Amino acid sequence: MIHELREYTFKRPKWEAYWDLFNQVCMPIRKSNFGTLACTWKVERGDQVRFLHLWEYDSLEVRRQQRGALAKNKAWSDEFLPQATALIETQVSRILSPVMPVAASDDVHEVYLTASYCRVGNAADVAAGIAARRDDMLGVWMEEFCDPNRVLSLSAQPLQDDRTAGGKDAIRYRETQWLERLPIQRR
To answer: Is residue 2 within 8 Å of 63, Cβ to Cβ?
Structure first.
């Protein structure tokens, strides 16, 4: 199994239009036929909104096939994409390998996403160490693309700057950001 973490940025008025479009057009087209939406979050800073959404696929090959089929979907290409691309400022997509399955509890609305930037060759040990040591962990991933030395973890509490997960000096530095979980409206 793989996950794809997609991150878009918007100016606030465009975000509100996109969120409506996502729920009213995107999700009815996609359903779970083109990957399964696991979680959605947002971060608001000033007039900018970052939207993160985590998609689940059985493999990279299945993702390639499903994304190819989605691109051929007339409703997707004619109704959703033209409107969506006009609203999105930037887009980043990361392919992740789950170390610990994502726990998308409906009662956890505020979470912390921590990126641990590991020294070369230490990501697997760091990911295993984080997953084993935290009982409030909601998910742990090793990034496959773009940075194979980065571990992402999602937790109900901020991850302390404990750099001993994975061995002494395995982690170069960490970045933690607060995220607000958004409800998934499945159709």
So the answer is: yes
Q: Where are the beta strands (DSSP E) in the chain?
A: 2-11, 36-45, 48-57, 90-100, 110-118, 137-145, 150-155, 171-182
Topology of domain 2-96, CATH: Alpha-Beta Plaits (3.30.70)
Domain residue limits, the chain: 2-96, 97-182
Shared fold status for 2-96 and 97-182: yes
Per-residue pLDDT tens over the stretch 115-130: 999 999 999 999 998 8
Query: With DSSP H G I counted as helix, E B as strand and the rest as coil, what are the percentages for the chain, rounded to 5?
Result: 30, 40, 30
pLDDT digits (tens, 9 = 90+) for 98-118: 998 777 655 656 788 889 999
CATH number of 97-182: 3.30.70.100
Q: Give, for 68, the enclosing helix (H) or strand (E).
A: helix 60-71
